[in-house]
Design brief:
Blueprint lengths: L1 H49 L11 H34 L14 H6 L7 H5 L3
Helix pairs in contact: 1-2
Length: 130
């Protein structure tokens, strides 16, 4: 009977790992799609500005164009950071450390991981800025 219980736990763990891996892969695919769309937006802004002589200092549209370009660039950088976070989450999953707070070692609540699959801290440590 002990073997069946151990086998059942191992099967549950494999199913859980597979579900987490699928959730991380889906988040990664969404983030890659977002990054690609942002890249197209950025290219469109640059291309549109290349067609006109833009003097950011004196052109009333120049400031908003510069802001828009900077905003899209910041969103692209955040998407790249999120991809790195997801890659590190997969590494933690492979090491068997996924779902453990990096600061206190306690389990990260499943609800938090559902919302933020790449989370590295429990709610308490996140609140305290640990």
């Amino acid at each position: 009977m002990g073997d069946e219980s151990g086998h059942g736990q191992a099967a549950h763990r494999l199913a859980t790992v597979a579900a987490v891996r699928a959730r991380l892969a889906a988040d990664r695919a969404d983030t890659l799609a977002q990054a690609a769309a942002l890249g197209r937006d950025f290219d469109a802004i640059v291309d549109a500005n290349a067609l006109v002589a833009v003097d950011d200092e004196h052109d009333p549209e120049g400031a908003s164009t510069a802001f828009e370009r900077a905003h899209v660039a910041a969103l692209m950088a955040r998407a790249r950071e999120h991809l790195e976070e997801l890659d590190r989450a997969v590494e933690r999953l492979e090491r068997g450390e996924y779902g453990q707070c990096e600061h206190c070692g306690e389990a990260i609540p499943p609800e938090r991981l559902e919302i933020r699959p790449a989370a590295t801290t429990c709610v308490r440590c996140a609140r305290h800025g640990s």
